[in-house]
Amino acid sequence: MQMGVWISLSAYFLLMIAIGVYAWRKSTSNSEEYILGGRDLGPSVTALSAGASDMSGWLLLGLPGALFVAGLSQAWIGVGLVLGAWANWLIVAPRLREQTEFYDSLTIPGFLGKRFPSTERLLRMVSAIIIVVFFAVYTASGLVGGGKLFASAFGGDYMVGISLTLGIVLVYTVIGGFLAVSLTDFVQGCIMMLALVIMPIVILTSDGSSASEAAARVTAIDPEFFSLSKGVTAIGWISAMAWGLGYFGQPHIIVRFMAIRSVKDVPAARRIGMSWMIVSLAGALAVGVFGRAYALRTGLEVADPETIFILLSDLLFHPLVTGFLYAALLAAIMSTVSSQLLVASSSLTEDIYHALMKRDASERELVNIGRLAVLAVGVVALIIAADPESEVLGLVANAWAGFGAAFGPLIVLSLTWKRMTGAGAVAGLIVGAVTVIAWIAMGLSSTIYEIVPGFIASFLAIVAVSMATADQGEYRHQKLA
């Protein structure tokens, strides 16, 4: 049985490396190509790359696990994410594509620095540090998923699993840069969606059950399993829906907007991306719900609910198909990890090394420094992920909130409000990040999701400080789109 699984996984690994080699030959001659793929992504690749790098392992591990345990009330997170992603495509995508080209910026910190020249050095340094710190945690969440797959599916060592996951990602990311990451994300996004469509159907047909019969089986044990309000307080509902606020400040997602071929391609990318997202989220929810029904019918022991996708892949499918489903899980993990590593590397290279340490660095030197930075961030994430008791959804929640609060209001207001100043930008960045970190440290996340106070505090800090400081004519664009 293991042989068939490893054949499928080996084919998947080889495909990822082959894409990395192709991208290396096509688009790594200078820093713009290595960091943004030459700003030449088509709408399909942009859309699925943004979606795949967004969803990560929590789509196949964390979300189905939450539904498996608590029922349909956990679906509010998905609703919040859909609304947030749609708003992100509508508000941020076209403006960011236009303005980052105008300011000749390759990174988010670079854009912010040139948008607010009076505080350029401070903005670039602080935002780059925040990106590297939170991405180390975020990347670790993906590696935890890889470790859980290896330990649960093969009975292997957890550390070997996270090391293997990181190793494959590093190969194609270091070699091929942004184009490799985007093309592999496109392929991985297709694999993820196909797996999430197949799995619920096979769960239902494994014993000839219909969806209504499966639902009745679960309801008999837990009458409120399908209630959207089960155990949900007003604060809990706000916390779930607030996940959508995070989209505005996720550098690994919005960097795709910077790389799309033109602003005219954004509407097509938005339609493709939102369709992919809705289908994939619906599939993940179905895996959790129908997986619970299957476990009740068969008496399946599920020690870790976040591994329900892995268990069902092993039980219900031919080994070759099981290998494909494992590849889908790895695709979800690796697409996000590679994007995060590259964005963190880009910030270290462009916003610290190039902007603050060596302005006369050659293009080849910057590409090589970027590759070394990918390796460095990967090693730090590996250390953070070493604890096998880590929960994927918990790590993702912390990092998502950190980025959403620090960068969300900053990005939206910098693209839409002329009166914003550099001092306001710095204040919002620091206040948002510090609020989230303090909220987590004080153990207040159980009261309300930390992105809510962080986002509000950051927004208010930007407005208050901007209104209190002189407008230094920092906005150099002809008009806000």
Could you characterize what this model shows?
The chain has 481 residues and is mostly helical. It has one domain (2-391): Sodium/glucose cotransporter (Up-down Bundle). The chain is built from 18 helices and no strands. The protein has helices spanning 2-26, 31-36, 43-55, 62-70, 76-102, 108-115, 120-154, 158-205, 211-221, 234-241, 251-259, 266-298, 308-316, 319-357, 363-384, 392-416, 422-441, 451-468. Helix 5 (76-102) packs across helix 16 and helix 8 packs across helix 14 (319-357). The chain is globular, with a radius of gyration of 22 Å. The N and C termini lie far apart (56 Å). The model has no long low-confidence stretch (mean pLDDT 83).
- Proportion of residues in extended strands: under 5%
List SSEs in N-to-C order. Answer: HHHHHHHHHHHHHHHHHH
Number of helices: 18
The chain-level structural class is mainly alpha
Reported CATH architecture: Up-down Bundle
| CATH class category label | Mainly Alpha
CA-CA gap between termini: 56 Å
Largest sheet: none
CATH topology: Sodium/glucose cotransporter
What would the average pLDDT be, to the nearest integer?
83
Low-confidence stretches: none
Taken together, the total number of domains comes to: 1
Number of strands: 0
Shape: globular
What's the Cα radius of gyration?
A: 22 Å
Keywords for this entry:
Sodium/glucose cotransporter, 18 helices, globular, symport, transport, transmembrane helix, cell membrane
